[in-house]
Amino acid sequence: MDIRTICLGVLTSGDATGYEIKKMFEEGPLSRFYEASYGSIYPALTRLTEEGLVECTELAQEKRPDKKIYSATPAGRMAFADEIVKAPSRDKFRSEFLVTLMFSDLLVPRQLARLIDDRTDYHLAQVRDLEEYMANPSADAGAGAQFAAGFMLSLHVAAAEYLTDNRYLVEGEALLPKRQASGG
Amino acid sequence: MDIRTICLGVLTSGDATGYEIKKMFEEGPLSRFYEASYGSIYPALTRLTEEGLVECTELAQEKRPDKKIYSATPAGRMAFADEIVKAPSRDKFRSEFLVTLMFSDLLVPRQLARLIDDRTDYHLAQVRDLEEYMANPSADAGAGAQFAAGFMLSLHVAAAEYLTDNRYLVEGEALLPKRQASGG
DNA sequence: TATCCCATGTAAAGCGTTACATGATTTA
DNA sequence: TAAATCATGTAACGCTTTACATGGGATA
C-alpha cells in the first residue's frame, strides 16, 4: 500500500489539508507504523484529484499560501474500500540496531552498553507516549486506532523487557572474550 | 545502513558468494529484520571489489557460471568497523496490517476475523521457527545472532498474545455497529 | 516432467526522501 | 533573535525491487 492510498484512506475519515495529513504521519497512531514526507504527500494529493478520487476546495488566506482542503469523493471511497479488503502485504521491518548487535564483537564494551541503554530508553519512551495516548485518546480515534496503538505498546514493552533481561548474553561476551577463549 | 554495508559485514564474518549472501537474507536471523534481492547484492559486491574493500576469487565450474567467492580485505574490515560504531538509525517498521485495522469499520466481520486469524497464525509460525532456531543454533551463529533471534521471538510472542487477547476490541464494533449507535 | 537448486548478472521502473524555494506569525 | 508553526510545492537523487536473460543437474 503506497502513501497515495493511505492519504485516500485518511480523507475517507475526514477532510484535511496536505499539511494536516503530514501531521498525522508525525503524531498519532499512524506515525508508529508508517512514515511519509511532503515530497510524497503533495504529489499524491494532486494525482488523487486528477483521478477524481478526492476533491479540493481552496480557502484563500492572507500572507500564506491558500489552504487546500481535500475530501474523498464517492468514487474515492469506493476505491479505498476495494483496497482495504485486499490481504495486507507482510510487515516491513528493518533494524540497523539488530544488525549492529549481530556484529557486536566489533564494539568495545562501553559502546555496546551505550547502544543497548539508548535503545531501551527509546522503547520505554514509546511505552510512556502510548500509555498516555491510551489513557487520553483523541476524539477522532476509532476502535481501530486504539487497537493499533495497543499493539505497538505491547511490542515496545516486550522489546524493553527483552533488552533488560537478556543484554548480558552479548555484554558478557564483549567483556570477557579472551578469558572465555582461554578458560575452556 | 545500505545493503552494500551489510554485505561487507557478512564477508567480515566469513567468505561467501553472492548466492550464499542472498540465502542469508532469506534464512537465518538476518532474514527477520533485513531483506535484499540479487539486484542489490550483486552490484554491491561489484562495487565493494572496485573500492578494494573485498576481494574476489573465481572458482571455475563446468556447466555453471564460475563461482565468485568474496572475502573482506583488511581495508574492508576497517571500513566496516567504522560503520558499526556509528549510532544505528531508527528501526523502520511499516505495517499494512495495522493500517487495515485502523479502517476496519470498512470490513465485514468475516473479513476482519480472517485477517486477524491469518496474522495470528503468521506470528505463531514465526515463534515456532525461532524457537527451533534457538534450540538448534547453526554452527556459525554468534551471541549477537542468537540475541537478535531472541529479540524477534519475544516480539512475535507479544504480537500473537496481543491479537488473541484484544481482538474483541475491533471485532465487537464490527459485529454491532447499528446496535451500539441506537442503544444510547 | 515439472519444479527446485545452483549461479551469475543487467535494465528499467517504482517508490520514496532530501534539499530547495518562499515567507509571515507566534513563541521562547 | 532564534526557532517553531503554518502552508505549499518541485527536482534531483538514492535505494531497491521486478523482470528479464541463461542453463544444467537433482529431486519429486
Description:
Two copies of one chain form a homodimer. Chain A is mainly alpha-helical. Helix content of chain A is 63%, strand content 8%. The first copy, chain A, has nine helices and three strands; from the N terminus they run H-H-H-E-E-H-E-H-H-H-H-H. Chain A has a two-stranded antiparallel ribbon with strand order 1-2. In chain A, helix 2 packs across helix 3. The longest helix of chain A is centred in the middle third of the chain and has 27 residues, at 109-135. The termini of chain A are far apart. The model of chain A is unreliable at 179-184 (pLDDT under 50). Strand 3 of chain A pairs antiparallel with strand 3 (92-94) of chain B, so a sheet runs across the interface. The first copy, chain A, binds a DNA duplex (28 and 28 nucleotides) through residues 2-3, 17-19, 35-40, 42-43, 46, 61-68.
